[in-house]
Structure formats: C-alpha cells, structure tokens
C-alpha cells in the first residue's frame, strides 16, 4: 500500500479498520543470506539498504523485544553534522543529506524538521572553540554560521541572553540544516519499507549464541530456535557489550546510562534546538516536540550501569541548566524521564567492522546513534554485502584501538564516562 | 544510589565521581586501556569522594541490579592518572 493524500482521504472515509499493519508478523524461515541482530534504527536501515541497494534477497531482522522499543524510541531526536574531525564530517554529513530525502524514499513521513541546531557559548573562549569547529565544517563543505549576540537573539526570540547571570550568552554556532526527526517514525518507516522489499522482521526473537560448523558461521541460536545464516550482522545499540560477552567477543565498550526528559505540553515557544553548557550544572540540549513538550537531556549519569533507571541527581542538574537558560519554563511539570543504555566506546566513536569471518558489528554509538541511522545503515549494508568498508566508515574500524588510531572527537581519552 | 564511604558514612552518589573500571593485571597496554569492560556481575571500580573527604574508594558493583556489593579502601590496582 502506497501512502499519499488520496489514499489518506479514502482510508479516512472507510474508517480505521481498513488500515493494514505496516509489516507482516511472521515466524523465521530456515535460513537467510544475512541475519541482522537488532530491530532498532540501525538494524532496520541496514536490512532496507541490503535489499534495496545491494541486491541481497534473503534478509531477516531479529528483534529481542518489539521494533522501536530500544534506543531508537528513547532518544532526543536531534540530527546534525556539526563535528570537528574530518572522519566525522563526511560520515555525519552523508547521514544528514539522507535524512532530507528519507520520507520520500520510504514513503513514510519521518517529519524531518530542519529547525536549526544552535550551540550557545557563554564566554569568549567558548565562542572561539565554536569558531574553530565551524571553520573546520565549512572547509568540508558543511553549513555552519557563527552568530554574535544580536544574531542569536534574532534567531531564537525565546532566549534572554543576559538571563544566565554570570554566564551571559556571547554567541553561538548554528547549523541550519540540523534539527529533529520523529524517532518512532524512523523505526516504523524503515521496517515497513524493508518488509515491502521482502525482508523478514521477526520480533520477540532473542539471539542466544552464534552457531558454527567447520570453523564457519552457520547461523544463530535464538529463543525461536536455530536460524541459518551466511552472514550475521550485529546492531544492538546499548547491548553490544553484553551480547559481545555472550558471543565471546572482547569489545572496547562500557555500558552507561543517558537520561532524557519531557515536560507537559505548552504552546509553541521554542523554534530551534538549543545546546548550552551551564558551568557547574553541565550540558543541556532542548527542543520542543510537535506535541508541545520540551524534550531535553544532558550528560551521561557518569558511571557504568545496565539498570535502565537513572539517578535523579542528574535530572536535577539538567533541569537546573535548562531553567538557567530558559527561566520561563521553570514552572512546567516534568511529564516523563527515562534512561537508555549506551555503548560507550573508549574513544567516543562508533565501531562498524567485520569482527571475524562472516560476523559483523555495528555498535559503540555512545549517545549519538540516532542521527547516524541512514548513513550507518547504508555503509554497514555495503560492508556486509561487499566485504569491505567504504571511505565513510574506514575510521570506525575495531582495529584502531590496537593500532593506536583512535577517533577521539572530544579529546577526552579512554574514559567513556567523560566522552 | 547511596555509597557508604568508609571515611564519611553513607552519602548520595552526587558527592562522588566514578573514575574507571579495573581490568585484571597481566594484559598488554591496548587491553589495559581499551579492552577493559567490566564483568557485569562484579564491576570493580575506582571512585573518588570528590565532594566529601576526597579519598579514593574501590567499589564492587553489580551492573545489572545496580547494587553495591563491596566498598574497599585498599585499592587492588593503582588509580589511573586522573582525566581532569
């Protein structure tokens, strides 16, 4: 079924019973060319591009719970390509370009909203650091604008630049094409489009182990039995370290928690995505959802955890930074807050690589995996189908940790809690 | 989470900073630096009571339940150079 205005009108008249499920619920087949482990954004996008661009016919996505229940549905929906290092420039820019046309390609409204991502500075030194990053971006052909105080005030009228008293806003770095994407729609849109190309999406199917025969991978053992596979591609977001341990693969990852919060809905008051470092309380990033809630988050909880419940002290810090920046929201009630498990890698950058034989890994996304989904899915599919990494993901290889070629955007060193 | 500082008693987690998980000895440099993800059932970690007595602690924690299993003062490995 192709979605469009006429079809929407027809279905509206016929009532909700006429709508079809987005993809078929099904039991696994005996064997596949590629089994993708993980039905989140990266796994579904990988399966879609394998089928669409690389001619792989028999593809299955195995999801432990339900499609969209993991980090693809637990993030703050921000997309951007405003990185400092060249390896990150070209990869994230590829992703941002794909976001722009993705709704049309998938025939599914992912609600890409290029409302701008504005990093705010509260000192001259911070503004200089943004100038450096902006210049690096412009040399790579990526849009970046350094805004002075007046320009910040014009661009986002919700801000009073002198409100954070000792830390008045001195300017900012704006990427206009950055913004937000409706996160659940990304999972649903990729799943539907992949299923239309013949991909099997199998939910409630947890991988328990890799099966080998004669030294080669022959498939996966799952809660729904053995499934044969020529190639196995992992894409399990914050559970890579855990799954790696189960499969006997040592990975340079720690599992950390990142929390996000949403307030009760209010009328439109914030037109862009703001990122602000409030000295003493830490970072906050905030946007307003189409429903009206302020969606915001900050830094990691700061120590390893696999519990999926965060510390309220972090919520307090992030709320303090938010209300220092936007005091007019201080009376809003917090509607929800939640924690997601993150693969924190030892250099803050992801890993997309062949692990051994026909076993592949896509993980280590730290807190930045959502924005990477289209580029990651496409490049990972190419790696799986052709057996070699393209230029966009060459720097993301696992071997960088033993060869010393780490990709450390922040320069924080091998301390995941500080990345 | 509350951490029982052997010097100060039970304090809120916000008073502490996690420093790192400890890998077993006898591994090479890359292993020591990068491939040191913790055993979830008993993650051995250095913390510092930065907003209290500033002493170093070794916590053994269960990452799945979040429970603190043991709090020690005799660090089983030297703290790495502080990242700050």
List the topology elements.
The complex is a heterodimer of chains A (419) and B (84).
Chain A: H1 5-14, E1 31-37, H2 41-53, E2 59-62, E3 78-79, H3 86-106, E4 117-121, H4 124-139, E5 145-147, H5 149-155, E6 171-175, E7 179-180, H6 183-196, E8 200-202, E9 207-213, E10 216-222, E11 225-234, H7 240-247, E12 253-263, E13 273-278, E14 282-288, E15 294-304, H8 312-325, E16 334-345, E17 351-356, E18 359-363, H9 373-386, H10 400-403
Parallel strand pairs in A: 1-2, 1-11, 2-8, 4-13, 11-18
Antiparallel strand pairs in A: 3-7, 4-6, 5-6, 9-10, 10-11, 12-15, 12-16, 13-14, 14-15, 17-18
Helix pairs in contact in A: 2-6, 2-9, 3-9
Chain B: E1 2-5, E2 9-12, E3 17-21, H1 29-33, E4 43-48, E5 56-61, E6 68-72
Antiparallel strand pairs in B: 1-2, 3-4, 4-5, 5-6
What distinguishing features does this structure have?
heterodimer; A: alpha/beta; FAD/NAD(P)-binding domain; D-Amino Acid Oxidase, Chain A, domain 2; 18 strands; globular; B: mainly beta; 4-stranded antiparallel beta sheet
Briefly summarize what is shown:
The complex is a heterodimer of chains A (419) and B (84). By secondary structure, chain A is of the alpha/beta class.
Descriptive notes:
The complex is a heterodimer of chains A (419) and B (84). Chain A is of the alpha/beta class and 419 residues long. Chain A has helices spanning 5-14, 41-53, 86-106, 124-139, 149-155, 183-196, 240-247, 312-325, 373-386, 400-403, and strands at 31-37, 59-62, 78-79, 117-121, 145-147, 171-175, 179-180, 200-202, 207-213, 216-222, 225-234, 253-263, 273-278, 282-288, 294-304, 334-345, 351-356, 359-363. Chain A folds into two domains: 25-77 and 183-252 and 347-418, 3-Layer(bba) Sandwich (FAD/NAD(P)-binding domain); 118-177 and 255-345, 2-Layer Sandwich (D-Amino Acid Oxidase, Chain A, domain 2). Chain A is 29% helix and 27% strand. In chain A, strands 1, 2, 8, 9, 10, 11, 17 and 18 form an eight-stranded mixed beta sheet that branches. Chain B is mostly beta strands and 84 residues long. Chain B is globular and about 35 Å long. Chain B has one helix and six strands. Chain B has one domain: Folate-binding superfamily (Folate-binding fold).
């Amino acid at each position: 079924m192709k979605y469009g205005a006429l079809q929407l009108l027809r279905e509206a008249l016929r009532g909700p019973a006429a709508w079809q499920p987005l993809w078929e619920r099904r039991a696994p087949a005996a064997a596949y060319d590629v089994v993708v482990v993980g039905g989140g954004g990266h796994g579904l996008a990988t399966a879609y591009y394998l089928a669409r661009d690389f001619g792989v016919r028999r593809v299955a996505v195995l999801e432990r719970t339900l499609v969209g229940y993991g980090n693809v549905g637990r993030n703050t929906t921000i997309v951007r390509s405003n990185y400092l290092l060249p390896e990150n420039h070209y990869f994230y820019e590829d992703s941002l370009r794909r976001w722009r046309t993705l709704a049309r390609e998938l025939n599914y409204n992912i609600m890409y909203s290029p409302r701008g991502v504005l990093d705010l500075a509260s000192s001259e030194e911070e503004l200089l650091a943004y100038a450096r990053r902006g210049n690096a971006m412009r040399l790579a052909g990526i849009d970046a604008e350094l805004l002075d105080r007046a320009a910040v005030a014009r661009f986002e009228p919700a801000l009073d630049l002198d409100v954070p008293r000792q830390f008045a806003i001195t300017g900012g770095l704006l990427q206009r094409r950055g913004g937000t994407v409706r996160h659940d729609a990304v999972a649903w849109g990729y799943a539907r489009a992949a299923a239309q190309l013949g991909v099997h999406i199998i939910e409630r199917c947890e991988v328990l182990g890799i099966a080998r025969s004669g030294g080669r991978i022959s498939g996966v053992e799952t809660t729904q039995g053995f499934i044969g596979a020529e190639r196995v591609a992992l894409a399990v977001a914050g559970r890579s370290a855990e799954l790696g341990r189960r499969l006997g693969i040592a990975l340079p990852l720690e599992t950390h928690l990142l929390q996000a919060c949403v307030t009760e809905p209010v009328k439109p008051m914030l037109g862009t995505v703001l990122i602000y470092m409030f000295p003493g309380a830490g970072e906050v990033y905030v946007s307003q959802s189409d429903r009206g809630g302020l969606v915001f988050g900050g830094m990691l909880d700061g120590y390893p955890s696999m519990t999926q419940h965060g510390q309220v002290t972090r919520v307090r810090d992030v709320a303090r930074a938010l209300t220092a920046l936007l005091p007019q929201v201080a009376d809003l009630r917090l509607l929800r807050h939640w924690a997601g498990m993150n693969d924190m890698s030892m250099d803050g950058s992801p890993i997309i690589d062949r692990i051994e034989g026909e076993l592949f890994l896509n993980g280590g996304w730290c807190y930045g995996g959502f924005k990477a989904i289209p580029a990651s899915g496409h490049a990972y599919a190419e790696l799986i189908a052709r057996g070699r990494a393209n230029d966009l993901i060459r720097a993301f290889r696992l071997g960088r940790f033993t060869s010393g070629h780490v990709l450390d955007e922040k320069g924080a060193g091998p301390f995941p809690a500080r990345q | 989470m509350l951490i029982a500082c052997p010097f100060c008693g039970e304090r809120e987690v916000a008073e502490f900073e996690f420093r790192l998980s400890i890998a077993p000895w006898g591994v090479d440099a890359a292993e020591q630096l990068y491939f040191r993800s913790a055993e979830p059932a008993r993650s051995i970690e250095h913390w510092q009571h930065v907003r209290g007595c500033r002493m170093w602690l070794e916590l053994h924690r269960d990452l799945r339940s979040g429970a603190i299993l043991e709090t020690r003062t005799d660090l089983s490995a030297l703290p790495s150079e502080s990242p700050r």
